[in-house]
């Protein structure tokens, strides 16, 4: 993880990892078959943070939101991990623990196992996508907002009337704002699914 954070994905080779550990590549291959397995284990270890227990007393929505924000914050601190997520890490031991937790959360809230699985997956996909979409572009940076404002204002008002008219407001929308709107929309949708499931049972 330290190598990934300091030097990026390209530096994550078996040779560099062995050097960082102070061992030979041959020694490393006694523990992992290849770089692909190493990356899978690394990512699985990194995503396990989402399995941390939420505060006591929260309902299913509060727990889901807490875990989503925790996962996002962790990925933003380690952006290299976000770029490595491809779906295969879901089969790792720590990730399976997270899947088990999410299934229990949504099944306990009233969803069928099928819908609970889809809900858990869609929430994880949203978190990962939101981080990947904003890699290298921090909309919280005042300079970035300044450039956006200038860009929007400089457009042809006939072709982009809304961008020009609302340049000030639009430039101030941050990735945090986008995330919270999306998270709340997902949770609202999950509530509707749960209510529909309860009505069907009644």
List keywords for this structure.
202 residues; mainly alpha; Tetracycline Repressor, domain 2; 12 helices; 71% helix; flat
Describe, in plain words, how this protein is organized in 3D.
This protein is mainly alpha-helical and 202 residues long. It has a single domain (2-201), classed as Tetracycline Repressor, domain 2 (Orthogonal Bundle), CATH 1.10.357. Helix content is 71%, strand content 0%. The chain contains twelve helices and no strands. It has helices at residues 2-7, 14-21, 25-29, 35-47, 60-77, 79-84, 93-109, 113-133, 142-153, 161-165, 167-171, 175-201. Helix 5 packs parallel to helix 8, helix 7 (93-109) crosses helix 8 and helix 8 runs antiparallel to helix 12. It is flat, with a radius of gyration of 21 Å. The protein starts with a helix and ends with a helix. The mean pLDDT is 89.
Concise structural overview:
The chain has 202 residues and is an all-alpha fold.
